[in-house]
Amino acid sequence: MSNIYQLAIIVLTFTVSFRKKVWGNFDRCYPTLLYMVVGNLTYEYIAHTKFHLWELKQIGSIPEIWADLIYLFFMVVPATLIYLTNYPDTPMKRIFYIMKWVFIFTMVEWVGGRYFNAIDHYNGWNIWWSLFFNFVMFTTLRLHYLYYKRALIISVFWTLFYLIWFDYI
């Protein structure tokens, strides 16, 4: 069942990205997409050399590291493109928009872990940490899109926080 859930999330996200016609904004969002990809790959490197906080299950006979890459390029990148492209104009709508994305990502993870065994948490990580991380991630993605230098500085702070809190360093 975890394979079906994982593939459904990937197909759904990729399909929505085409229906919303966001790929025309790829060039404009490219630096922030790279920021997201580099951050994700950095976590994967650290996780595979030290220990995981969360781990996606392999998809069928595809090893876990390849499942991570499939998720990254066929779910995370299109979702980030949708998020950046449809960002609202007014402050109140922005708050609700960020909260909507935090909720969606957290629920996808919660449902995937609880009902489909698609993700595992380790070393003190849990769905509440994911909720917090998703809030930081979505606010920082928008900040990077607008002011990449500020986002990079804030990212160093958050990276150090997680590395220290979860005993990576």
List the SSEs and their pairings.
Blueprint: H1 2-19, H2 26-49, E1 54-56, H3 64-85, H4 91-116, E2 119-121, H5 127-146, H6 148-165
Antiparallel strand pairs: 1-2
Helix pairs in contact: 1-3, 1-4, 2-3, 2-5, 4-5, 5-6
**Category by helix and strand content:** mainly alpha
Q: Major sheet, described briefly?
A: 2 strands, antiparallel
Radius of gyration from CA coordinates:
16 Å
Q: Unreliable stretches, pLDDT < 50, 5 or more residues?
A: none
Order of strands across the widest beta sheet? 1-2
N-to-C order of helices and strands: HHEHHEHH
Outline the structure in words.
It is built from 6 helices and 2 strands. The protein has 169 residues and is mainly alpha-helical. Strands 1-2 form a two-stranded antiparallel sheet. The longest helix is centred in the middle third of the chain and has 26 residues, at 91-116. The mean pLDDT is 94.
